[in-house]
Each structure stands twice: as structure tokens, then as C-alpha cells.
Amino acid sequence: MKTYKIPLVPGPTSVPAEYREAYMTDYGSTDLEEEFFELLEENQNLLKKMLHTENDVIIGSGEGMLALWGAMKSVIKPGDKVLAVSNGIFGHGFGKMAEAMGARAEYLEASDGAFVSAEALRTKLAEFRPDVVTAVHCETPSGLLNPIAEIAQAVAESGALFIVDFVASAGGAEVRVDDWRIDLGLMGSQKCLSILPDLSMITVSGRAWKRAAEVNYPGYDAILPWKTAVADRYMPYTHNWHANAAMNLSLKHFFAEGAENVFRRHAGAASCCRARAKELGLRLYAADEALCSPTVTALIVPDGWTWKEFDSALRAEGLAVGGSYGPLAGKVFRVGHMGSQADLGLVNKGMDVIARVLRK
After folding, report:
1. Shared domain check, 238 and 327
2. Which of 57, 228, 240, 254 is the most exposed place for a label (fewest CB within 10 A)?
């Protein structure tokens, strides 16, 4: 299998050696040993601090999509009304997931490269009166960081449960769960935390716990068993000690560096990427640069190239970036500068490769 010396895919991100070492260590039983429960509790508390929340935090075994499916299935019943606020494939995907559960989904879609306004959302909320509203903080396929704070009040006023995917932003951009009135906040391990794609995290409000008890979904990804699992020292399934040990290192490094310094590092890497892209004549997908994420930059595939040709040329030079999905497939490519990859030296090396390829 070929590997690349300049890893800039938008997740899973490059795993530092110290975190890899945690995966290669032998541990005991996650079902029986107090040391594991103490580790799990420490990780929960570190995540609460990172995400600015007093809500409970669930850490599940499975990558970030487990959080999305588990949260949705735990609080949505057939016939419920779900409003998907969307400007990308993951935002739209929330609605499709709801439909698969028998819910009635409607969509508030933004124009390409933009986000919905609070006024438009209020109008839609009054018209549709949803039980649940979903949104995505960082829409990675389009490189957009959506201003969740600007729509949070409108959602809160509606009384709907608010589900937000911050898988690709948390740890690289500020997330304020309580200030934004998020009932179910969704996170994964493979983006800004820079460990393997093996853990999913969910913040759960009191309202969300109440709704989960009413729905009583019983699956592997259900959130309800986690309400008492850690306190009772009784796991719903055999957990992943290795991944929790690696995440513990990552979270401690986040706070050792300092949250503001981490966010400044991500913003600097993103700014460098965008500035160099513009120098090369590449165009941002975002209609407004203010919406560009500090964790990933989406660029239009340059004229005269197909995405397949361009990707092959970059990989021949040792650079791995990402393509995109859905309507943007073949039109947009993405540079992932999140977690361990939010590094100016690495980003500059990647942009040097892009410059060389474009000059050929």
C-alpha cells in the first residue's frame, strides 16, 4: 500500500508517534477494571472542558458516524418532523437519515458556498414546526465553518431539539455547546484529535436524555444505556481502551498547548493555505472567505485538469489531499490542515507541490 510523505487529507489525519504507541500497549479488560473507568471519566471531563459544556458526554466505540446515527435514532420516532439546515452533503445527509427512520424531513438549503440566515430559519421554523433541527458546524466536503451561534437562538426559541455535527471542527475551532443550546453535539476521533477513526463522542443535554427515554431505542449505538453506564461500572459493550488512552494524550496536549494557541495554529495554517492558493490562481469554493474553515480548505479543481489527473500528479510528488463528495465530486479538492496537520511547515510543503504541478 502506498503512503505519502506530505499527508494533507481532511481526515483521518496523521497520527503522531506518541499516540500510535498508546495503541501498541497491552491493557486489561474494559469491562472489569477500575483503571479504565477512571480513564473514561477523565476523558469525559476533558471533553466537557474543550466543548464548554456541563452536559453529559458519551464516548462510544466506533468512528464519528456512530455518533450521528446513535444520536438520531435515540431521539427520533417515525412521524417526527426534522428540519435539516444544510449547505453541504453532511447537512443534507441528516435529513436523509431522518427519512430512513420514518421521520418527515424538510430542508433549509443555502446557496452554494454560503449559509442560511437566522431570518430564513425563523420563517421555516414557524412554518414547519419541527421536533428536531440538525446542522453541521464544519461541512468538510465544502470547507465551510458555519456560524452556528447565529442560528442557535432561533432554534432555542422554537423548542426543537438541536443536533449539531462538529466532527471536523472541535479541537481546531471553538465549540461552545451550552452557549449554542446544543442538545446533542457530535464528534469523532479522527479529525482534530489526530487519533484513529475508532471513537465517537456525543454531548447530551437534559432535554435529550428525556427524549431518549421516551423513544427507548435499543441498538448498539443507542445513547440511553450510557446515562448510567460509567457510574454503574457496567459497559454496554467491550470498549476500546487503546483508543481512549490515545485520546487522553491528545486531549492533554490540547490543554498543554492552550486552546487559544491551538485555534491560532489552525487559523494560521488555513490562512497560509488560502493565501498561497490565491497566489497560484486557485479559487476558493466558499462564496465568502469569512466562512472558510480553519480545519480544511476547499478549492476548485484548476482549469485544464480533471480531478483524477490532478490528484495523480500530486500523489506522484508525495502529496495526498482529498477530493469531495456528491455534487462537488470532481469539482473541488480539499486540503486538510487540522490536528497534527495544522502545521505551517507541512502546509507550505503541500502548497509547494501544488505549485510545481501547476507549472508543468
Report:
1. no
2. 228
Instruction: Give the per-residue pLDDT at 1.
Output: 63
| Backbone φ/ψ region at 69: left (φ over 0), alpha (ψ -120 to 50), beta | alpha
Residue 329 is placed in which grid cell?
465530486
Length of the chain, in residues: 360
Residues 56 and 104 in one domain: yes
pLDDT of residue 326: 86
Q: Is 335 left (phi over 0), alpha (psi -120 to 50) or beta?
A: beta
3-state secondary structure of 184: strand
Contact between 223 and 202 (Cβ < 8 Å): yes
In a domain, 310, yes or no: yes
CB 88 within 8 A of CB 136: yes
CB atoms within 10 A of CB 157: 12
- Total domains present in the chain: 2
Q: Can you name the residues that pair with 56 across neighbouring β-strands?
A: 204
Q: What is the pTM of this model?
A: 0.97
Residue keyed to cell 442560511: 116
Q: Is residue 151 part of a domain?
A: yes
Q: Which three cell numbers stand for residue 243?
A: 483508543
Residue type, 233: R
What are the pLDDT digits (tens) for 89-113? 999 999 999 999 999 999 999 987 8
How far apart CA 295 and CA 8 sit, in angstroms, is 11
Instruction: Tell me how crowded residue 120 is: count the other CB atoms within 10 A of its CB.
Output: 15
